[in-house]
Amino acid sequence: MPSPVNVSAAPSSSARPAPGRGFVVFSIALIVAIWALNFIAAKIGLRHFSPLTMGSFRVVFAGLAMLPTYFFCLRLPAFAEAAAAQRRGFSARDYAIFAYLGFFGVVINQMCFTAGLHYTSVTHASVIVGMGPVYILVLAVLLRLERWTWRKAGGMAIALAGVTLMAGKSGMSTHSPTLHGDFITLCGSVGFAIYVVLGKRVARHYDALTMTAYNHFAGALFVLPVALYEARRIGSASAWRAIPWQTWVATLYMAVFASAIAYLFYYWLLRFMPASQVSAFTYLLPVTATILGILCLGEKGTLGEFFGAAVVLLGVYTVESARAAEPAE
């Protein structure tokens, strides 16, 4: 799944009238709900599937789901830019760009997200994902795409302090029961941050539908051999029939709703709103996911974890508000 914040990854469209404020707020709330439920779906699917099976099936199914979605959207007036690009065709350089963005944004991000949740809690994973702006900031500064300021540094320090508080009494030691999953989830979030920073350089050349679809196509092709191996490893027809229906529903939900539909919906919103405004609403993701984890999965968080999560969100908000306050270049 994507990080809750993206950085101007979609072209703006001033020619089309913006939707009403109420519809925009409803749309953002819907996306937050879809991505919050994604944590629950992953936990349910992982009760039967191994992390590698669940992750590879999710990526391949997402690529397959994007096929009809892409060609259906090409018929709609709202995606005329994508239709024009499809008629022109793509060069070898275009496909290379789709390949490396699909590797980081789909394969690394979604595979690590799924595997990480096998070893950690929804609370920890949602906060680590919610720190996306911090990872993006570090990479953007290293690549000289963004300026470093004391306000941004302060926000990072606050977020890191919150992570330390979330570690609990044992601290960030190798004996922490969730450390393994936290690290895998972190790798996935960093993978998406790389996707955002690299995608920022080419965002002007591709529309949202084209980028989303072809990145998912590339990700599915990368992971297809793994998915076929995992499918063969399941074994006989009786073993396939023994897989609970809840597992398939969870996997399809992650592929169709949390990947294909939510990505398109998110980038569609960015055509009418600055990314900083959209991200202000998606700070609710860790809170919503944690509440769902408690209600649906019976997870129990400590007071220190909740306080640490609040501190992390404060740090993330400080970083993003500092970036939003800068004049556009």
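(the above was protein one; protein two follows)
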Amino acid sequence: MRCVKKAACAIVLALLLAPVTPAATRGDYVRPNYVSLGEWARANVFTIRWLERDKVVQLDGRGAHLTFNVEARSDARRAQINGVQVWLAFPVLYQNGRALISQIDLSETLSPVLAPPKSPRGINLKTICVDPGHGGRDPGNRAGSNEEKKFTLLLAQEVSSQLRTAGFDVVLTRDNDSFVDLPARPAIARKRGADLFVSLHFNSTEEGRNEVKGTEIFCLTPAGATSTNARGEGDTRWVTGNKNDEKNMLLAYQMQKSYERNLNVEDRGVKRARFQVLREATMPGILIEGGFMSHPAEGRKIYDPAYRKQMARAIVEGIQAYKKAVNGREADKSEARNPNPERNSKSE
């Protein structure tokens, strides 16, 4: 335990030395500061080895395994933390035989997972706001006669039931087929004193319907960076939700890890986006894309109540893992009391 604490302190110390980028608060483009991945690894007691020379490098140490793709042609933003795919805010650069990583990714992507931020003593995670995407006149994605809004609500109801069984209080942004404006959703969470905001969605695609599948979890893009699918373009300003960047990332990571472990789904990774519900959330928040309705096999699962029950269990366990990370022993006691819980107008 003492070694783990020392490692966490070393990581935090290295990150505290990162230069500040004030332009990000104004929405200007920020050229990220890069540091040597090798030097950072050695400073934090990681060993380094190439899985594929000049293509994929792996860092191991203190129980953590980090893998980075350094080949620009295959997207050098792709990384793995303990086997979970995570998309970096900026690509890893490879210059003169050295891998370079952005300071933003050290502080906003790696640090929250390797040295989880702790909640103040006496502050316990209790109330979860579950947001079923779409509703009413907004059907969301369609696959045949199936509309996304129906299945986000059904999943939200199952998640709500299992969360209450596990000892949480739950707030729903809608409990029927009604339309709720995007700004109203995080506002409901704030007014009801929610500790977390979890928005539920399902994907769909017209191209590659038989191939494209899997789960991806979105958290808010850090200030100074562009979103995962923005191709280097778009807004980079600081917004309200950025005050919870560390916990946003930790929650997204724990949720993606839980989905992969419990459901054996294709891991599309933790990604970054400036969806309005995430921008305006005053508490840590994520948006879950729980699978592709358009994929023949995955779509059938989404429509199956038994599978949605499993999906809800994965969501609850992701929240519990996050709670344990930020609350420590308090979360352990809570789980001991409940050892067996029933276990996009997404505009930027």
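Reviewer note on protein two: The CA atoms of residues 68 and 79 lie 5 Å apart.
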